[in-house]
Amino acid sequence: IKRFPPPRFQSLCRDLNSTVLVFVKGLFLYICFSYCVYFLLLRTVGGSNTVYEWSLSINHSEEEEPAKYPYQHIRQAEDVQQQIIRETFHLVSKRDDNVCNFLEGGSLIGGSDYKLIYRHYATLYFVFCVDSSESELGILDLIQVFVETLDKCFENVCELDLIFHMDKVHFILQEVVMGGMVLETNMNEIVGQVELQNRMEKSEGGFSAAPARAVSAVKNINLPEMPRNINIGDINIKVPSLSPF
Amino acid sequence: MALKIVKGSIDRMFDKNLQDLVRGIRNHKEDEAKYISTCIDEIKQELKQDNIAVKSNAVCKLTYLQMLGYDVSWAAFNIVEVMSSSKFTYKRIGYLAASQCFHESTDVIMLTTNQIRKDLSSPNQYDTGVALTGLSCFVTPDLARDLANDIMTLMSHTKPYIRKKAVLIMYKVFLKYPESLRPAFPRMKEKLEDPDPGVQSAAVNVICELARRNPKNYLSLAPLFFKLMTSSTNNWVLIKIIKLFGALTPLEPRLGKKLIEPLTNLIHSTSAMSLLYECVNTVIAVLISLSSGMPNHSASIQLCVQKLRILIEDSDQNLKYLGLLAMSKILKTHPKSVQSHKDLILQCLDDKDESIRLRALDLLYGMVSKKNLMEIVKKLMLHVDKAEGTTYRDELLTKIIDICSQSNYQYITNFEWYISILVELTRLEGTRHGHLIASQMLDVAIRVKAIRAFAVAQMATLLDNAHLLTGNTQHSGICEVLYAAAWICGEFSEHLEDPMATLEAMLRPKVATLPGHIQAVYVQNAAKLFSTVLCGQEGAPADSKVAQETSQLLIDRLPVFVQSDNLEVQERASCILQLVKYIQKLQQKDVEVAEEVTALFAGELNPVAPKAQKKVPVPEGLDLDAWINEPPSGSESEDEGRKTKGKAVFAREESRHTKPRYTEVDEKELAMRREVRKAEQANNPFYIKASPSSQKVYQEAVGVEHIPVVQIDLSVPLKVPGMPMSDQYVKLEEERREKNKADRKKKDKKKRREKGRQRRGDSGPESEEDITPAHMVDIVTEEMPENALPSDDDDKDPNDPHKALNIDLDKPLADSEKKLPVRTHRPDEVLKSPIEDAEGLEVTSEPKKKSGKEKDKERKKGKEKKKKKHKQEEGEDLMEAGSEEPVQSKVTNDVAAQPPASTPEASDLDFWLSNAPVPSDPQEAAAVTDAPPASTPDAASGVAAVVPDSEPEETKSSKHKKKKQKKEKDKKKKHHHHHHSDGAREESVQNGTVEDEEPLPPMSNYAMLAENSYIKMVCDIQGNLHDGSQVVVSVIFENKCDSFIKSMEFNVMDSLNSKLQRPEGAGPHDSLTVPFHLPPGISSEARFIFSVQSIVMPQKLKGTLTFIVKTEDSSTHEKLDFKLHFTCTSYLITTPCYSDAYAKLLESGDLKGSSLKLEGINQPFHHLLARICFHHHFSVVERIDSCASMYSRSIQGHHVCLLVKTADQTVSIDAKCDEPGLLRNVLDEIKLTFSQC
User: Fold this and answer.
1) Any bridge partners for residue B1210, and if so which?
2) Angle between helices B516-538 and B567-588 (to 10 degrees)
3) Could you read off the pLDDT of B845-901 as tens digits, one per residue?
4) Cβ atoms A129, A115 nearer than 8 A
5) What is the Cα–Cα distance from B859 to B852, expressed in whole angstroms?
6) How many Å apart are CA A43 and CA B474, to the nearest integer?
7) Is the pLDDT of residue A27 over 90?
8) What ipTM did this prediction achieve?
9) B interface mutation test: which of A61, A173, A195 has the most B CBs within 10 A?
10) Chain-centre distance for alpha carbon B1085
């Protein structure tokens, strides 16, 4: 089996004028409606001797140096993932604002049953990859719900919030989409659950977490002045929204 | 201690957290890789610390790095550690990391089972939620099997938050572990009516997803979904349901009729565009499913088309796109209604959005007619010239070809025009579709005899200008065209004007740069041309000089090809070269050779349909594997073949001898197949690659419009390369049509004058039929073998995970299925999860179930009373009738759950559907409802007659109807009870045991492997479902002493036949390290994979386990020998089999039989069956009384069928299998099993 070269590390965030690509099952949000299919794909690409791989990681936790591992034993999921993100970004970023928000799927994302559905907010693209069982317009609305949820949870979300808090973004997304299936479409419900979980995290942290929080607050002072808005109101796509979600 | 914590946390605040990492990466744009590798080193240090907070921080950073494309699988074990933290904060980070990095081949996943189970039963709902979310991303078949029960329990959790997640994740579980679908389905169905909208939406989501893949199994849910559709206000749910109906209607046209009205109402009433769009879509699906002869539905079509037009005209590109998409669906069945919007669609071709243009192209495909084909293609050709980006241009190209060639070139009236279009298309630079154009050229040239002369002339021009095509782009696909050109020129060389020139063109040295397969065709066809030249010349013997020159030309030029690195080219060239040399010799002696050379290529080639070869049915009595002759004497037949050739000196090459028996082909079927194929092509995945247009647009084409068209010499095709000629044909065609029309008018007038009153139906001047083809073309249809089988099942993807979910859900659950299989062999695990235990008891334990049944009976009785009351009360209250519904449906469920019931759901559905047209006459209505019960004979097997329980929608229509139905029901109920109390069991049971039978003794598949005072090993051997050559051995190691056991190493002496799979690079005698340590009293399981070659014989492998026993002060090295016994049974895999498939299998006759008799067996029959099922991996296909058929399959695909019969303590087993050795051994093992108990 021909192996890929070792992973080349590229972050789209920085290469492309601080444009963050939020790609379900990709860079930020690595989950999608076609998740299982996607992983089948990864498995066929990266399939290797499982027992050996496993013993590698066990050995590793004991002593050995990672540098000794030849690259061919590293699974290739990340490569495929990066390729998908790169290609998707190329596709999406080239599109004008006045063209439609659907892209038909290519072989990389699983074939013609899949579509890329995206929305463009200022410098951010939110791309969902869905199969034909989802309603296109419904997904556009779902993206809107997701972005508005982010906005509420981060209190005026900006792209830097997403860059620096990818874990939180994930936690929020997990309340919207779970294992590639739409879980909840009611924004208030989502926000409520996220807040309850955050509260729980805070109460667990208690005294011992306080110093770390303080330090990180100090560190954050040094952050460059960030634009505090990604213009959610200024939506380029006119979609008559689904009434009660 | 407290101080330590504070100190730890102060240390920690200077650790890098995620934000620092991100910031660092952003600040090190130049040397990012270096920065990240130092970060990874830091992370490794952090992971080594004991502090869980530090670890989780490290894991959090790793998650980010994974996102950037770094491999972090080495940290999988640490992720598991963080997952198992007791604090929610860390647990959440751990599960997030796991959901990002784990996949099926991550081995530590095996270690997570118990942790996940613990989290699932955690009192904190967010622990459970986080575990469910994580699991949904990395669930494996093993996890699905082990946790299915726990998740099913969560589906009835008190918190809706957990419920909805549990419901949703069940889909993933079904995919990985299809056996869980049937047992879990009733509960899933309940969730459709959950009070919480989120849970309901999740359940709808899951069932829609399931139904999309296997719609027919979910038809029986249609009434329920119909109710939801008319009651729900959640648009998301509505959309899902409407989409689901779209998938169901093709299977059940009656459903469609029922749907039309509410859907049209929704279309009129909704304000949400997404809902409107989905409604339109489903209405279209309904209309497609209904036969076209429904006049009253034209209104619905009009409504749809009209709404879609509004969408397409909208300024929002999204709506425009979707409108076109939906339009293309209507097009398939109602092309007329779409064709009226041709203007709109052509307009869309000019849209700046590529996706929209592509969709419009799709539509055009269905809109062409004889009349407008040329016009449309002309428009498309303009777009081809304008198009930027090769992808779109290629798309246009394929569309043009698709449009023209559809339905066997139905719309092409002038093939000269089509050939010129094809020739023009060859000028596209950088297209990938050269082969497509080539195959079109070949197809047209072969099948349209009348066009051959023209085609040959064109192809000769192409060959002459080959340098234009190959040009600078060597590997562009367009040179494929030359393949077709060379072949056509060679094969139909009699039409060539100047074969000599063409021959010369084909032998130019530059040809050697073409791809090998094209060169091969060149060489071969050069030979054909050569024969033509000879023929032409030898007519006039004076010109023998020319013929000799030709031979010399070949002899001069062919050596280039003889040196080719392509084997095919080399072989052909050297063969032909020798031939020509021989001919030259003959020529020098003035021998007439032309005739014999021509005989080389005599005969005509007929087109053969794709897959024709595959469709030839094997004639009866022909065994393809048998020797035709005795192997050594093969040469004789060849000789005979040569004799029959008679006078020809050169035997014809057999490979070219495709001249087949001319057969009558079923035109219709052919057309249909073609249609289907075209439709598939039309739906091809178009990958939009908006890459910059690096290719220049063809330059000469720019000026095309301004070149004055030469009007004079139209019949002679222009031979100037780079000049599009098709336009002229368009003009020509128009003129011709005008003329024809005029002619016909004259004729018509004449006719009218002659036959005064006779009317002509199709006298409309624009009608299709008026357009006659330019020249009568004889389109040869593709040949198919006689009685070809019209099976086109080779498109299905065998790897589709949804295939396994094609499970009949209406079949009542058998006892054995009511609970998900729990792995009984792990006593420690069962103890660990009391909840699961309780659940298990509730569902399956025998006494409780009986009481449940009694309850059922009571409930039924209660209902009967109620009904009697009803009967007395003449004034029946409709409200009350409605309120009774839930009770009734409950009963249905219960009845359904009992094995003897036939499929009540199906009859429900029929009933529900048959009510669709509401009969106005009450009498009639009564007749309708009476009909189904009457058809089921009450007496014969009354149990099977189950009342159609679902309440009809139109209760209002008649009270009489209702009452009659009630009576029927009462009757039925009595029958039902009667039979139950009888315990009559003559009906056949589909799946395993009949109820009321004694419970089985507990069984375990784990056999003792070896044991000493320190450790005990038990093992289970299973075939690997996915790999026919692998067997998985699960060994449970149990620490029996009170010391710590570590460094266990497992080794087996490989035999020739079976080998332990060791990691790459390990030697054949190296031992495998068991990946865990065993504290005192703990047992744990490890799996080893063996590869096996032959599965016919049982085997024994010797092995050793070495380990270190560590006590507080010393450690000793110990060893335990064991013998692994691979029985033939362990190569069998439990595979369900339906009785019809089973019968077919037995009928097929390639199974060999064997039988076995067991005496003195005094256990109940169902125990016997269960034992065979359990120990020998069989499944029961059908059981009737004391006779059962069973089935299993080996990992290498052998079928094993058993027929088990019992009569007073004697059990006879008749078995059949395609591998007699395997069967014998399996039977021996079965015998052994029963001798032991």
Assistant:
1) B1159, B1207
2) 20
3) 444 444 444 444 445 544 444 444 444 444 444 344 444 444 344 433 443 344 444
4) yes
5) 10
6) 36
7) no
8) 0.71
9) A61
10) 36
Cα gap B678→B408, rounded to integer Å: 10
Do B355 and A100 make contact, defined as CB atoms within 8 angstroms?
Answer: yes
Kindly determine whether residue A141 and residue B274, on different chains, have CB atoms separated by under 8 Å: yes
B169 part of contact set with chain A, CB < 8 Å: yes
Q: For testing the chain A interface, which of B88, B105, B242 should be mutated: the one with the most A CBs within 10 Å?
A: B105
Secondary structure class of B921 (helix, strand, coil): coil
Tell me the average pLDDT of chain B: 72
Site from A80, A83, A164, A178 to mutate, B interface, most B CB atoms within 10 angstroms? A178
Cβ–Cβ under 8 Å, residues B110 and B125:
no
Nearest to B136 by CA among B195, B206, B58: B206
B234 and A244: CB-CB below 8 Å?
A: yes
- Looking at per-residue pLDDT, the higher value among B611 and B945 belongs to B611
Q: Which residue of A has its CA nearest to B57?
A: A167
Cα separation, A235 vs B356, in Å, equals 21
Among the partner residues A48, A51, A179, nearest to B1089 by beta-carbon distance: A51
| pLDDT for position B164 | 92
Kindly determine whether residue B316 and residue A242, on different chains, have CB atoms separated by under 8 Å. Answer: no
Name the closest residue on chain A to residue B86, using Cα atoms. Answer: A204
**What token pair was written down for B1083?**
């047992």
What is the token pair recorded at B80? 């598991």
Which chain B residues are within 8 Å of A186, Cβ to Cβ? 197-198
Nearest by CB to residue A103, choosing from B355, B801, B1073, is B355
What distances in angstroms separate CA B251 from CA B262, B426, B961, B1033, one per listed residue?
A: 19, 45, 29, 44
CA distance B1195 to B1126: 13
Which chain A residue shows the shortest CA-CA distance from B208? A133
Please count the other Cβ atoms lying within 10 Å of the Cβ belonging to residue B679: 13
- Report residue B398: phi and psi, to 5°: -65, -35
Residue with tokens 């190691």: B1037
Residue B17 CB neighbour total at 10 angstroms = 20
Do B1063 and A49 count as a contact with CB atoms less than 8 A apart?
yes
For every residue of B107-127, which 3-state class applies, written as one string? CCHHHHHHHHHHHHCCCCHHH
pLDDT of A136-164, one tens digit each?
Answer: 888 888 888 888 888 888 887 776 777 77
Nearest to A27 among B53, B67, B234 (CB): B67
Q: Do A201 and B44 touch (CB under 8 A)?
A: no
Rounded Cα gap, residues B183 and B90, in angstroms: 35
How far from chain centre, in Å, is Cα B446? Answer: 35
Q: A115 with A124: CB under 8 angstroms?
A: no
Enter the tokens of residue B382. Answer: 């303009």
Choice between B788 and B363, residue whose per-residue pLDDT is larger:
B363
User: CA end-to-end span of chain A, whole Å?
Assistant: 48
Per-residue confidence (pLDDT) for residue B737, from 0 to 100: 67
Taking CB atoms and an 8 Å limit, are A61 and B1063 in contact across chains? no
A vs B, Cβ pairs < 8 A, gives 302
3-state SS of chain A: helix, strand, coil percent to 5?
A: 50, 10, 35
Preferred mutation among A27, A81, A184, A235 to probe B, highest tally of B CBs within 10 A? A184
